[in-house]
Amino acid sequence: MDREAFVYKITEIIFKHFGQYGTDSVKQCVRELVKTIEPQKELLEGSSEREDKDTAIITVFGESKPGIVAGITSVLAENNVDITDIAQTLLGKNFAMIIIVDLSLCSKNFTELKEVLIKKGEELGVAVFSQHKELFKSMHRI
C-alpha cells in the first residue's frame, strides 16, 4: 500500500467510527487502525528509543475548510516543533491529516502541547489527537 492509500484507509476508519467525534468507538477504532497499520510497520520501525521519545504522531480530522493545515502547523512552529512528515487527504467534505513531528526542541512539555493543539482544533472545528511514537508502536504490538 503506498503512502496515500495508507492515509486514505486510516481516514476511512476514523470517519466510520467517530462520525461527529463520538468517543464510545475509540477502542474499536484503535483496533482497526492497528490492523490497517500492520502491513506498514516499516514506517514505524528502525528508530532508536531516544528518537521514539522525541517523536509524536498527530492526527487531525473534521469537515474540510480553509485554514486547518495553517492553524495546526502554526501551533507546531510557535512551539519549536519540527514536522518530519505530513500527509493529508479528503473523503468528500471530510478532512484528515497525519503529522509526524520531532519534539526534541519543543518549548512545552508534551501534555501542554497536546492541550494547545486540542484548543486550536476546537477553534478550527476539527478533532486533534496526539501521541508519542513509542505509544503508537506499543499499540501496534498489541
From TrEMBL:
<dbReference type="Pfam" id="PF13740">
    <property type="entry name" value="ACT_6"/>
</dbReference>
<comment type="similarity">
    <text>Belongs to the UPF0237 family.</text>
</comment>
<dbReference type="InterPro" id="IPR022986">
    <property type="entry name" value="UPF0237_ACT"/>
</dbReference>
<protein>
    <recommendedName>
        <fullName>UPF0237 protein TTHT_1725</fullName>
    </recommendedName>
</protein>
<dbReference type="InterPro" id="IPR045865">
    <property type="entry name" value="ACT-like_dom_sf"/>
</dbReference>
<feature type="domain" description="ACT">
    <location>
        <begin position="57"/>
        <end position="131"/>
    </location>
</feature>
<dbReference type="InterPro" id="IPR002912">
    <property type="entry name" value="ACT_dom"/>
</dbReference>
<dbReference type="InterPro" id="IPR050990">
    <property type="entry name" value="UPF0237/GcvR_regulator"/>
</dbReference>
